[in-house]
């Protein structure tokens, strides 16, 4: 059982590595990159509404090479963008 399961009202900010780990769980094809569909699924499972819209916005912001996927090199910018827009915490 996770340490936070017994806490009722506390929230903890996630580190960049923790957010990356959460997002990379949705790399369904195992290529080490996140597609728009994978991002959409990740955002929905993390409880964010409008997953498709958020995935498009995140890609537009963080996909530096324009290939439609978030690579390892682009992940830090995706995490920075997502944290500033939606703030990831465990509550």
Give the tags.
91 residues, mainly alpha, two-stranded antiparallel sheet, 4 helices, disordered N terminus
Helix/sheet category: mainly alpha
Sheet with most strands: 2 strands, antiparallel
Strand residue percentage: 5-15%
Oligomerization = single chain
Mean pLDDT: 83
Question: Runs with pLDDT <50, length 5+?
Answer: 1-10
Q: Order of helices and strands, N to C? A: EHEHHEHE
DSSP helical segment count? 4
**Cα distance, first to last residue?**
15 Å
Strand order of the largest sheet: 1-4
Radius of gyration: 13 Å
Instruction: Give helix % range.
Output: 40-55%
Indicate the overall shape. globular
Give the strand tally. Answer: 4
List the helices and strands and how they pair.
Elements: E1 12-13, H1 16-24, E2 34-35, H2 36-45, H3 51-62, E3 69-70, H4 72-86, E4 89-90
Helix pairs in contact: 2-3, 3-4
Provide structural commentary.
The protein has helices at about 15-25, 35-45, 50-60, 70-85, and strands at about 10-15, 35, 70, 90. It is mainly alpha-helical and about 90 residues long. The strands form two sheets. A two-stranded antiparallel ribbon has the order 1-4. Helix 3 packs across helix 4 (about 70-85). The longest helix has 15 residues, at about 70-85. The chain starts with 11 loop residues before the first strand and ends with a strand. GO terms for molecular function: calcium ion binding. This is EF-hand domain-containing protein. Keywords: Calcium. It holds the Pfam family EF-hand_1.
């Amino acid at each position: 059982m996770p340490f936070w399961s017994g806490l009722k009202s506390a929230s903890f900010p996630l580190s960049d590595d923790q957010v990356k780990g959460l997002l990379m769980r949705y790399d369904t094809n195992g290529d080490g990159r996140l597609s728009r569909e994978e991002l959409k699924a990740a955002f929905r499972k993390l409880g964010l509404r409008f997953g498709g819209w958020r995935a498009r916005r995140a890609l537009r912001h963080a996909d530096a090479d324009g290939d439609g996927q978030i690579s390892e090199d682009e992940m830090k910018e995706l995490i920075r963008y997502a944290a500033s827009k939606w703030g990831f915490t465990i509550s």
